[in-house]
Amino acid sequence: MKKEPVFADPTRKAVLSLIFVGFPVACPGVSFAWASSRSSPVAFEMDEQKKIGLGLIGFGIFFTFLGVILFFDRGLLALGNILWLAGVALLLGWYSAWKLFSSRANYKGSASFLLGLFFIFVRWPILGIIFELYGCIVLFGGFWPSVKVFLYQIPVVGWIIQYPVLLLGWLGRGSGR
Q: N vs C: which end of the chain shows fewer Cβ within 10 Å?
């Protein structure tokens, strides 16, 4: 029996592009709002709920990043977390999101993420971000092989990941000889 590649699902590729890159990368087979006027048939159309979920995840990541850049601003971090959680719930569906956070295998990641969210709300943002990062790594640890395949497909990032020694040599030559 022939195994399909890890990245056979175009929706997973679109979601990973928004989560890890911050903007949707061209994903054949996935139609976003600005590309839905194409006349050719598309293999998979994203419904409105998933589009809104992707947008909320993107805004959540943006506000979290902005909160970290602005010296761990508590308001921006809390807004980013709320938008990200709402986006995940809309993207996966309420029941699937509940199953993700409440499955027995993910208790440690869920507890860590929620503890980090609590620390952000009680004005300990650095500790909260540390707990949230650990919780995300534990919760979404099964996606790392898919993320790796996705990152290899991004033109510049894929080359840097595949050939880090060449990049270091190239950077070393231009450092003032």
A: N
